[in-house]
Design brief:
12-stranded mixed beta sheet, alpha/beta, single chain, 15 helices, UPF0210
Length: about 450
Amino acid sequence: MSRVEVQETNSMIREMNLDVRTITMGISLMDCAHEDMNVFNRNIYDKITRSAEHLVKTGEDLEKQFGVPIVNKRISVTPISIAAGGLKTDTFVPVAEALDRAAKEVGVNFIGGFSALVQKGFTNGDRVLINSIPEALAVTDRVCSSVNVGSSRSGINMDAVKQMGDIIIRTAERTADRGSIGCAKLVVFCNAVEDNPFMAGAFHGVGEQECVINVGVSGPGVVKRALEEVKGKDFETLCETIKRTAFKVTRVGQLVAQEASKRLGVPFGIIDLSLAPTPEIGDSIAEIFQVMGLEEAGAPGTTAALAILNDNVKKGGVMASSYVGGLSGAFIPVSEDHGMIEAVQRGALTLEKLEAMTCVCSVGLDMIAIPGSTSPATISGIIADEAAIGMVNNKTTAVRIIPVIGKDVGEIVEFGGLLGYAPIMPVNAFNCAPFIERGGRIPAPIHSFKN
């Protein structure tokens, strides 16, 4: 980095909440396979603790050297439904517990990959994993889970969509004493990507290397400050400003990623430039919308503003690194963004508006709290809608929704830390159960037939 870049970076860190949100080590567990549970768990524990032994220390050293906050150090592993597919068992909960022990041993914040890819159907391992999710997320602290139920090439597995509505409710009930927080560690995807470093949806794809370092950079505060300098200017100026800012932010991530890769002796994978907010004032996607000229997130024009933000973040990031990947764009979680929370409380932002916004954001309905009395079929309907958006538009979409047991619309649930807090949002009360009960698979759209 040049002297000018260093000075700009220092300013972004001090004044605009710039951080490296995560260094995530992806680890393949394919060579750990065994039919005996005890042997398999010992294999995965040994491999994870050996591979990631120096991950946290390296992250801390880089923070001190470069002065860049590295908020999380994380691990993603091969989807457990695949790695543990040879086990003769009806539960993978002991595997989740082994993952949790390994995560605690090396000191990472989260470990992702208690996952299944069922867009076209279920293997035996997929069924065991999905049925294990509620208990696994209840008895572990750092394990995150994801299920991919659809893709643009395969269509949507509606049997999986139906089942995940029930699984989410069961997970909420199993962690009801903690604000149903288990659901905050569970994501349902369409078009899941193999190199995403962000939780709760990270897993190490089967097309990835043996071990790899992926870095996620976040800078909504930096973008907000840059846009304050061009208030009232035309859209071309707005877009150019976002691109230039995203370029600078990505350069910081590139520096950290390359140095982490060198020190750990692990190949560098991708930079994920995702504007991921926090509950901190000044670190909000909703505040960016306000600087753009909207009174609140959710006002008419919000989807257009988000499309501008998402597209130009990607354009700037691609120019700064040859290996931009993951989900790169703008996240719109409710509980993790104080501006989004305020918009919900003021009535500017509804679940339906958030769904419209997911057509152009980097993921989908994220960290949304709903009444604990919501039916499994309604949750499945919400998942089906998001999966359809992803399938038809050939983009990643996801649902991380939290039916908070014992709470109703207007009440607040506290999660703490980066997960923040959330108002309970209303959901459409009309019945969709007969639609969900049809089962089977929604075929892929016509434009998927490309070869």
